[in-house]
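Researcher: Go.
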Amino acid sequence: MSATGLPESWDLEAEDGGGSEVHGDALGLTFSRFSPGQILDHMAELARRTGAAVIPLGCPTILTSEADPKHLPESLRAEAIVVAPESLTGQAIQLVITPRPEPRQRPALPQFPYHPNPVATISDAPCACCGQERGWVYTGPVHAADAPDSGSCPYRVAFGKAAERYDAAFADGIEGDVPEDVGTTILRRTPGFLAWQSPTWLTHCGDGAEFLGLAGAKELEKYPDAVGHLRQRWPDDRFDDFLAYADFT
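Model: Structure:
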């Protein structure tokens, strides 16, 4: 027992079996050698109530007051951090012990005039075409004999390098007549899209259409002209079934 009437140390336990060593002296309480889990919530509650310091092994000491660092040994004072009592929770202690990594800054996607919002998957895997970790990979269709099914970065798609390397196209065809450069851009430099049938890229007035996303029966309610066009193309006795169950591009 110390001169303050506090035990020199004792163990604090939580319902999940976790624990911590608690030390008492003339300056107050300190917690050390603790486990993760519910014990952190107990420690945070006691630290808020008593102004105790939390000293994780190998991590900065957590204090609840700007005045507290002067009571610490020099070895702990330099890296001590102050957390306001109302913000000191078990989760706050856990973040000091195991900080979350900074989110990776990913480069902006290239612009695709015929697919303005391309489906790209966040990935740290290297590009199958250039071998660089770009932070994005293309996962849409690839029409080629020897190309990988997915894994090229969108930059190699945009620059035409993936199509050139694998003699690949990313759409199955174009519906309508367009200039050669437009056709090349759509087929070999624009990300394709997955659909329930192998889709052809639509055109209008001698140029390619923009792919804006999938559309089903609900989305087509806003476009009666498009529904009328589909009604002309489909058998009358199957129209309602097709419209109810299909997704369209």
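Model: The chain has two domains: 9-97, 120-213.
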